[in-house]
């Protein structure tokens, strides 16, 4: 996967600093919000697992710990568990990449092993599916009328679901977008 392209797409999804300032938020808040669309290249590459593993490859080269897409937040480094890599959280619940299947899902924090949502057929597809969501949510922040555009929301939902690997993952993106 081309992580530089992912980084560039996420940066382009962020509202401009001028648009954010129109919301009457401080310069610090503008900077923090803009940072939530960034994955930072690591100055010193890390060695995490097998470089052929997309999760390891991503985290070796990038620190996504400031990246937030809706309720999805990423860890600075993945945690290896019995079932897979924990790469982030959705609210408080762990975001897991299954080591056996590659599937990305949200595990129930209070009942480990119970999948709340399945998110994608692979980590690579999950990252790609987040791009239209980030773009949409960035627009919603600076233009409240976007929330009323159901056709646009459905288009973004469709793009995300296709990017994630198909209709099996629609419930997660529906939740993330607040779509009905």
Outline the structure in words.
The structure is a single chain. The chain is of the alpha+beta class and 180 residues long. The chain is globular, with a radius of gyration of 16 Å. α1 (3-13) packs parallel to α5. The chain has helices spanning 3-13, 17-21, 27-35, 54-61, 123-142, 150-164, 170-177; strands at 40-41, 62-63, 68-69, 72-80, 84-90, 93-98, 104-107, 115-120.
What value does the Rg take, in angstroms? 16 Å
Order of helices and strands: HHHEHEEEEEEEHHH
- Helix count equals 7
Please give the number of β-strands.
Answer: 8
Q: How are the strands of the largest sheet arranged?
A: 3-4-5-6-7-8
Keywords:
about 20% strand; two-stranded antiparallel ribbon; alpha+beta; about 180 residues; about 40% helix; 6-stranded antiparallel β-sheet
Short description:
With 180 residues, the protein is an alpha+beta fold.
Topology readout:
Layout: H1 3-13, H2 17-21, H3 27-35, E1 40-41, H4 54-61, E2 62-63, E3 68-69, E4 72-80, E5 84-90, E6 93-98, E7 104-107, E8 115-120, H5 123-142, H6 150-164, H7 170-177
Antiparallel strand pairs: 1-2, 3-4, 4-5, 5-6, 6-7, 7-8
Helix pairs in contact: 1-5, 5-6, 6-7
């Amino acid at each position: 996967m081309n992580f530089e392209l992912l980084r560039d797409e996420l940066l382009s999804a962020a509202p401009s600093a001028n648009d954010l300032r129109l919301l009457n938020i401080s310069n610090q808040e503008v900077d923090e919000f803009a940072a939530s669309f960034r994955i930072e290249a690591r100055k010193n590459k890390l060695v995490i697992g097998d470089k052929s593993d997309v999760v390891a490859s991503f985290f070796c080269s990038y620190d996504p710990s400031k990246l937030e897409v809706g309720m999805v937040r990423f860890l600075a480094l993945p945690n290896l568990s019995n079932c897979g890599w924990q790469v982030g959280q959705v609210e408080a619940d762990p975001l897991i990449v299954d080591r056996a299947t590659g599937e990305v899902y949200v595990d129930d924090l209070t009942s480990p092993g119970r999948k709340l949502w399945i998110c994608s057929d692979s980590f690579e597809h999950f990252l790609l599916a987040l791009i239209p969501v980030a773009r949409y949510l960035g627009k919603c922040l600076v233009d409240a009328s976007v929330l009323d555009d159901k056709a646009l929301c459905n288009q973004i939902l469709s793009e995300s679901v296709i990017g994630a690997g198909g209709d099996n993952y629609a419930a997660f993106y529906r939740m993330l977008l607040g779509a009905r």
